[in-house]
Known about the structure:
By secondary structure, this protein is α/β, with parallel strands linked by helices.
Amino acid sequence: xxxxxxxxxxxxxxxxxxxxxxxxxxxxxxxxxxxxxxxxxxxxxxxxxxxxxxxxxxxxxxxxxxxxxxxxxxxxxxxxxxxxxxxxxxxxxxxxxxxxxxxxxxxxxxxxxxxxxxxxxxxxxxxxxxxxxxxxxxxxxxxxxxxxxxxxxxxxxxxxxxxxxxxxxxxxxxxxxxxxxxxxxxxxxxxxxxxxxxxxxxxxxxxxxxxxxxxxxxxxxxxxxxxxxxxxxxxxxxxxxxxxxxxxxxxxxxxxxxxxxxxxxxxxxxxxxxxxxxxxxxxxxxxxxxxxxxxxxxxxxxxxxxxxxxxxxxxxxxxxxxxxxxxxxxxxxxxxxxxxxxxxxxxxxxxxxxxxxxxxxxxxxxxxxxxxxxxxxxxxxxxxxxxxxxxxxxxxxxxxxxxxxxxxxxxxxxxxxxxxxxxxxxxxxxxxxxxxxxxxxxxxxxxxxxxxxxxxxxx
Length: 459
């Protein structure tokens, strides 16, 4: 697939990945040259018969791989300059062996997930609700699914009335809506020194600037946040946090530090954007930061990371006084959540399947994190129910070189540069959910063998 333009026949599942691979292959073959402008998201989506969101995700992957650049108001362009290799961990030619992929953060492929989907679809097919088949007005979906969204937020430790919730097609659309509500082009968003890989391209698309804030072993320093806000000349508008283990460092911030950060944001006049894709996956965790300052907080979570990748059901909790503006921003980019997916999500919650799957995920992830800790040693950071580990690399071992070496040995990993804002220390992120237990053991063993032994220089 080295031709350009792509055709609908070139698109395979997952669609975003095949689109990105097709563009990479076209660049490698010279069909796309440095400086060429890629089609607008909507135009390419129409040409290929896929969603605009799928094209956006493909372009984001290419931006993170430094293959293309997104310029606000101008478009997306092929970057110039020679490359020794394609820097997308999962890219491979059709003739090569598929790597053991630790680069994508997905839940464990539990065998009971397939049964859960089949059972839910059969129940819905037997009694299809009118709203699912014919809903067009967003208010109808909110009325039907708002109570379930509010109940799920309660499991996450946040008590919110349905009127303060917004159902979205996953966490990323919720993040975009929150950013669009609180900030405008040129504003500054405070975040951790390494943050979500989706926040960085989102900020570029919206013309926002990210500023990493200093931290200690417990997380972001509240006093550093206040100082940075004071020095921004009023341009810092919000604080973006991943406090519950989903951030690159896989760190769960304690209750006291969460309260301190909420007070610091309030003192600095900042909105709080709390991203929590793992939701209630970790039991007995501290309450959300949003619970300490609900009047200025946007909290968003979803079911994709904690239950099933295909369940694109996100929930955005918003302040009362910004509810109308937030809903209008959502209308402009997504209109409303997909009713059939929301129907399946509610079915899982009401039937008890969601609780059963949560418990199964917890048990499996606890075993996998112990497995990773044994293989990689105490340097790998994570927590008992996390989906990934963060592994700082020894001095003298570059992350790009390690990534290429790992891929040559059959393992795909993500580099720390994908997440870095101000933290440039070399590291890799290893996701634990996408492989079977035996494959994971094999991949971890390969990575452990590539790391230098104590007292020996990097290989």
